[in-house]
Task: inverse folding
């Protein structure tokens, strides 16, 4: 089975930061599966990249759906035999959705940002275990950092997005747990913060481009064997949990 290639799966890759991560990895020679809820949107995203000669392929992936995730694990096992890189990028934030109750916002957000990540990670673990260099990158947010949130002079000290921040704090906890659980398999499992980025999620208000946001995720997806595991980072360095 194509041993000299590197295979990556990026969730939520049809747009925004996920698409930029997938594009950046493909430009570095990685074969990238773009996990997309809507395959049609994935095909449209891939068409542009394929014109560049990049090895990208859209795959159906809804992180909240057991059947979707198991079907994808089977497809990767059949077509590639293993997975080298998993980027858990898919994420939502519903704190500003006034049409939903707080409990409904919490339920839906945790289902994607936490349960979805656990579901996808566990389904991909047997495939990652067959890689010589398994890497998992969880796309988190510094808004969830307890260390930063407890500093009154921190730039976002006055931010409060209860469901989103709770979900990313839980994602950080998953990062540490999987880093421990997968250590024996040589895996590096890390959380990254892409920074405040202009995407649909921020109504394009962010100050960074998706390409800038993708840099740190790509770096940690391609970590060498002497790289860290179980850390939370942004472009400037390590972040407190
Ligand atoms: N933008 C920022 O400033 C910022 C800062 C820190 C962290 N982040 C994190 O970065 C990641 C990407 O965000 P973004 O800004 O690029 O947002 P975005 O443009 O809204 O993209 C989110 C992606 O996640 C997908 N998605 C949503 N629910 C899903 C599900 N159940 N299963 C699979 N995919 C699903 C979306 O698919 P559809 O198109 O089908 O909805 C979309 O592809 C998120 O985890 C976000 O929390 C963003």
Result:
């Amino acid at each position: 089975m194509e041993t000299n290639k590197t295979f990556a799966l990026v969730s939520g890759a049809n747009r925004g930061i996920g698409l930029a991560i997938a594009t950046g990895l493909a430009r570095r020679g990685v074969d990238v599966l773009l996990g997309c809820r809507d395959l049609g949107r994935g095909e449209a995203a891939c068409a542009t990249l394929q014109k560049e000669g990049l090895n990208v392929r859209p795959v159906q992936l809804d992180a909240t759906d057991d059947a979707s995730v198991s079907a994808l694990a089977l497809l990767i096992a059949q077509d590639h035999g293993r997975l080298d890189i998993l980027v858990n990028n898919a994420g939502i934030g519903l704190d500003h959705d006034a049409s939903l109750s707080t409990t409904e916002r919490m339920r839906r957000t945790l289902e994607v940002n936490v349960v979805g990540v656990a579901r996808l990670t566990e389904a991909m673990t047997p495939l990652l275990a067959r890689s010589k260099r398994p890497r998992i990158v969880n796309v988190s947010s510094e808004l969830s950092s307890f260390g930063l949130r407890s500093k009154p002079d921190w730039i976002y000290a006055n931010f409060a997005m209860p469901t989103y921040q709770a979900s990313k704090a839980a994602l950080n906890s998953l990062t540490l747990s999987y880093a421990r659980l997968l250590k024996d398999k040589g895996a590096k499992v890390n959380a990254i913060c892409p920074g405040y980025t202009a995407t649909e999620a921020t109504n394009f208000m962010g100050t960074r481009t998706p390409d800038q946001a993708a840099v740190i995720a790509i770096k940690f997806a391609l970590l060498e064997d002497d790289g860290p595991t179980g850390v939370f980072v942004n472009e400037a360095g390590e972040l407190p949990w």
Remarks:
- The first strand starts at residue 7 and ends at 11.
- The longest helix spans residues 102-128.
- Residues 15 and 81 are 27 Å apart (CA to CA).
- Residues 7-238 form a domain with the Rossmann fold fold (CATH 3.40.50.720).
